[in-house]
Design goal:
Shape: globular
Radius of gyration: 23 Å
Structural class: alpha/beta
Distance between the termini: 45 Å
Number of helices: 16
Order of helices and strands: HHEEEHEHEHHHEHEEHEEEHEHHHHHH
CATH superfamily of the largest domain: NAD(P)-binding Rossmann-like Domain
CATH architecture of the largest domain: 3-Layer(aba) Sandwich
Strand order of the largest sheet: 9-8-7-6-10-11-12
Strand content: 15-25%
CATH class of the largest domain: Alpha Beta
Number of strands: 12
Helix content: 40-55%
Largest sheet: 7 strands, mixed
Bound molecules: nicotinamide-adenine-dinucleotide
């Protein structure tokens, strides 16, 4: 155990920001303006439940309004506090800038354990929280657009959208007040999987560069790589599922609230997920070794560690023992500033949160655009694209006939080529492009500057530069 004290999450983000900003040449005072959180609103409201009045505390923090609306999830967890939402809001500013989603940064939270409430109770609480935020324009399609985060999902987003619509009956863009909604309530295909999908695309991009893999002491492909995931919720589940099913990675460890599972041969992600849904945790799962103190698996041998649960899990107390050569921060802030330093010195490569989990906000951006344009992506082009492809197929067929049927198309080429892109294909294509472009912008800084030795600093440099340019364009 180190004698150093661990900074708070907010201080950790500031320390990382400061490290990067020292390498920049910003106009006097701008550094401070970018770092500080513009405003944090605390709300305490009562809801009558089970025959008594219950008081809840919630927050919505706006970090930067250099672009509007501001964007960021709403988290339901007992540990939610001002320091945490401010840290998360700051990360949203940098994340949006990095992936070029045209938003400022925001974040919200409610101090509640959602597992303690019935669905109808959660609906009452969510609607009341949404009412308190919406009446102050802290939910608004052109000013502040929340999304899901830990403890919330499509269901809560649908309640928020409906609450806003009830309060703004003539707002034709009301659906764009929140993203992550179910498809039948104005959502977009591929949003639920987006953050985990983005983690997969980020790893695929990392693995395209020999130099980057070598920095982590890795080589080859994702196929066969041993992966340990913490948190099999929305982000962790999708990342683990796609990596194992589509890239051949072995999920050798899964860490949940009640313990961890380990199997050198790889775990069946779908089976573990089903077990958790049925039994409320991983304990008792038959086909793996169970450890009660799941956090020890963060220190287990593996090729890739994916913390996808909560912040501060890799800290001064365990960083020295973490063996993974590559960590991808699917959660926000899983590695503290102190742990980051220890891991860097050990040669561990960290793909930072502001990039690694940006798939969620990227697809949220697509959803917001869809809501404002009031039309599903691909609706106008799909059949026209198919008709043009049919022309090519017909022409190939005609040439084959002329040449006496001497060649033939491979069996599934026709079906694959003919199929026009629907919304899901377009969303995945836009997400893939975004994750690749953002990674390339980071690695260029990482490899081209002698004073930048890690991807996190590179990510901050790219994003702070973009935020600074926005301020400059506004004449500030
Ligand atoms: P979630 O609530 O769907 O899942 C979180 C999972 O972590 C749950 O399965 C929970 O049981 C588990 N967990 C909680 N505490 C744990 C502990 N101490 N040890 C091990 N497991 C624990 O949440 P999510 O939406 O998947 O979010 C996870 C992280 O990803 C958060 O940091 C969030 O801010 C970040 N994130 C989420 C999104 C998104 O689109 N949902 C986008 C960007 C970033």
């Amino acid at each position: 155990m180190s004698s150093r004290t661990e900074p708070s999450f907010r201080e950790s983000v500031d320390l990382m920001f400061n490290r990067a900003v020292k390498l920049m040449d910003l106009p006097p005072g701008l550094e401070e303006k970018i770092r500080v959180c513009n405003a944090t609103y605390t709300v305490r409201f009562g809801v009558r439940l089970r025959g008594a009045m219950h008081t809840f505390t919630g927050y919505r923090s706006v970090h930067s309004e250099h672009m509007e609306p501001v964007k960021g999830g709403i988290r339901y967890a007992t540990g939610v506090n001002q320091d945490e939402v401010e840290a998360l809001a700051a990360l949203m500013t940098y994340k949006c800038a990095l992936v070029e989603a045209p938003f400022g940064g925001s974040k919200g939270g409610l101090c509640i354990d959602p597992r303690e409430y019935e669905e109808h109770e959660l609906e009452l609480i969510t609607r009341r929280f949404a009412y308190e935020l919406a009446k102050r324009d802290l939910i608004n399609p052109s000013q502040n657009v929340p999304a899901p985060d830990m403890g919330t999902g499509e269901r809560e987003m649908a309640w928020i959208a409906d609450q806003y619509a009830r309060m703004n009956t003539t707002d034709i863009n009301a659906k764009a007040c929140v993203t992550g909604k179910p498809l039948n309530a104005g959502g977009i295909s591929g949003r639920v999987e987006a953050t985990g999908r983005g983690v997969q695309y980020a790893l695929r991009e990392f693995f395209r560069y020999e130099e980057d893999k070598a920095a982590a002491g890795l080589s080859g492909k994702l196929d066969g790589k041993r992966v340990i995931v913490q948190g099999l919720g929305n982000v962790g589940y999708h990342a683990a599922k796609f990596l194992s099913e589509e890239d051949g990675s072995l999920i050798t460890g899964i860490i949940e609230r009640d313990g961890g599972l380990h199997s050198a041969d790889g775990l069946d992600v779908e089976a573990v997920r089903n077990w958790i849904v049925k039994h409320g945790g991983v304990s008792g799962y038959p086909d793996a070794q169970y450890v009660e103190d799941g956090a020890v698996l963060l220190e287990e041998e593996c090729d890739i560690l994916i913390p996808a649960a909560l912040e501060g899990v890799i800290n001064l107390s365990n960083a020295e023992r973490v063996k993974a050569p590559l960590i991808i921060e699917a959660a926000n802030g899983p590695v503290t500033a102190g742990a980051d330093e220890i891991l860097r010195k050990k040669g561990c490569v960290i793909i930072p949160d502001m990039y690694a989990n940006a798939g969620g906000v990227t697809v949220s951006y697509f959803e917001w655009v869809k809501n404002l344009s009031h039309i599903r992506f691909g609706r106008m082009q799909r059949r026209q694209e198919e008709a043009r492809h049919q022309l090519v197929i017909d022409e190939l067929q005609r040439l084959d006939d002329v040449m006496g049927n001497t060649w033939s198309m491979s069996p599934d080429f026709k079906d694959k080529y003919l199929k026009g892109a629907g919304e899901l294909e377009l969303v995945r294509s836009g997400l893939d492009d975004t994750m690749r472009a953002a990674y390339q912008s980071m690695r260029e800084v990482w490899h081209s500057r002698d004073d930048v030795t890690d991807l996190r600093t590179a990510a901050y440099l790219v994003s702070i530069d973009k935020v600074a340019k926005s301020y400059h364009a506004k004449g500030l």
